[in-house]
Amino acid sequence: MAYQRFSLFPDSPSFKDFFSARSMRYRWRNGDPVITVTIMAICVAVWIVETLLKIVWPTGCNAFVGSGVFMPALATHRPWTFITSMFLHQPASLWHILFNMLTLWCVGPVLERMMGHLPYLALYVLSGLGGSAGMMVWALFSQDGWLTSAYGASGALFGLFAAILVVYQRIGIDIRSMLIWMLINFLMPIITPNIAWQAHVGGFIIGGVFAWLLVSGLHALRGKSLQQRTLMYGVIMLAVIIAIVVACNMSNPLLTNPLLGMFS
């Protein structure tokens, strides 16, 4: 299957021009991976801020990162961290941001062109939320899990992995090369310590289910447009994630011992 070659700056001479309103509208209508590039730009920009803060103001860096990381024990008290944690990466560590962005660029543009911008964005966000839900579920089985902080785009990325498996399987494309790339990512927690594999599993499950619903789903909804199915299934998946988080939080030790929050 042939894919259109994508150049980051095909018509414009500068980074600023790429993100101009006129250029973005053109690329949006042209089917270019606008969402993928925007996510990458935000992640890199946030990482640069983190790195600079770590160099010139370490205390400020800790406060900046600490305010955005996801921790199961504090998740319902700091609901914004479900989103902010997707855009944070280890400060001053080129490996973390580079590997995640490389992975995103390998799978994101293909999916965005196949699905369309908004369904792809819904997939990415729901997968990232699914990664946080995976952390919540793991906390039920590990007392230390409640106070484990996590951040990074990998939960969302694993949702993209699952989605591309579903889509490729549906249209009959050979997925062996993609399986190898996914296996490498799944083995990363064994090779590199302190990786939140629980978020990988959660993102993979949510992303796979959402993609399957869009591709196959309920027979009664197959006649609906992709945008309509994205909205309906997206709301359902979001409700499921919220239900998982609320149910898990009922066992949150912080509810019975508020002093634990002092050590977060």
Question: If you had to describe this structure to a student in words, what would you say it looks like?
Answer:
The chain is mainly alpha-helical. It has 11 helices and no strands. It has helices spanning 15-18, 21-30, 34-56, 58-66, 81-84, 94-115, 117-141, 154-171, 176-191, 197-215, 226-249. The longest helix has 25 residues, at 117-141. It starts with 14 loop residues before the first helix and ends in a 15-residue tail after the last helix. Mean pLDDT is 86; it is low at 1-13. One of its GO terms (biological process) is proteolysis.
Summarize the structure.
With 264 residues, the chain is mainly alpha-helical. The chain has helices at residues 15-18, 21-30, 34-56, 58-66, 81-84, 94-115, 117-141, 154-171, 176-191, 197-215, 226-249. It is found in: Membrane.
